[in-house]
Design goal:
Blueprint lengths: L3 H17 L2 E5 L5 E8 L3 E7 L2 E7 L8 E7 L3 E2 L3 H8 L11 E12 L3 E10 L2 E11 L3 E2 L5 E12 L10 E2 L2 E2 L1 E15 L8
Antiparallel strand pairs: 1-4, 1-14, 2-3, 2-14, 3-6, 4-5, 5-7, 7-8, 8-9, 9-11, 10-11, 11-14, 12-13
């Protein structure tokens, strides 16, 4: 009887232990979007996206503070639907992609915010400058994809001052600065749960 108790206890705890184990999720770039918006001539808003991005999420639902997020954006993939403007944004006046081809984010803190929200704080590196930012994040429940894979969605927003990252180019016109300083960043991300590797026979 004594020998059976540990085995029974292990079986009883198995579901809880499985839930407690951290899971790794990979960004599905084909169903994700990294967008930004900035004022133009004070009176309108220019929006753009980065079309090439990658990332990883390690989610620890038993202890959310142990979760981590890392993401990389290819700045050369910037798209504002105006080729001449995109070329200017890639130039040394702005992102200077020849020197700084990527934007990266690495989390330093993940915490709960409300019922379905998260606060994800981390280091954003852009144009060779690293600054702390906090993302307001909402998460979807898990769903099964068409191939049986497990997926989740995340929507995140934050605001940054581009001058904090050395992006200081501007021109003054009658209405004011040609380009606003505050940039709103919006992320719509879909991630796929990594499958555990099976031992080869």
């Amino acid at each position: 009887m004594k020998k059976l108790l540990p085995a029974a206890l292990a079986l009883a705890l198995a579901p809880a232990l499985a839930f407690a184990a951290p899971s790794t999720w990979t960004l599905d770039a084909s169903h994700s979007n990294a967008g930004f918006a900035v004022k133009h001539l004070v009176i309108s808003t220019v929006r753009g996206t980065f079309t090439t991005l990658s990332g990883k999420l390690v989610l620890d639902e038993a202890n959310l503070a142990k979760s981590t997020v890392e993401a990389t954006i290819d700045v050369n993939s910037i798209d504002t639907q105006v080729p001449d403007r995109d070329t200017h944004l890639k130039s040394p006046d702005f992102f200077d992609v020849a020197k700084y081809p990527t934007i990266t984010f690495k989390s330093t803190k993940v915490s709960k915010a409300g019922k379905d929200g998260l606060k994800v704080t981390g280091d954003l590196t852009m144009h060779g400058v690293t600054r702390p930012v906090t993302l307001d994040v909402t998460a979807s429940p898990e769903v099964k994809g068409m191939g049986g894979e497990t997926r989740r969605g995340y929507a995140a927003t934050t605001k940054v001052d581009r001058k904090d990252f050395g992006l200081v180019w501007n021109k003054m016109v009658e209405a004011g600065p040609a380009v606003g300083d505050q940039v709103t960043i919006t992320l719509d991300l879909e991630v796929v749960k990594d499958q555990p590797k099976t031992a080869s026979k």
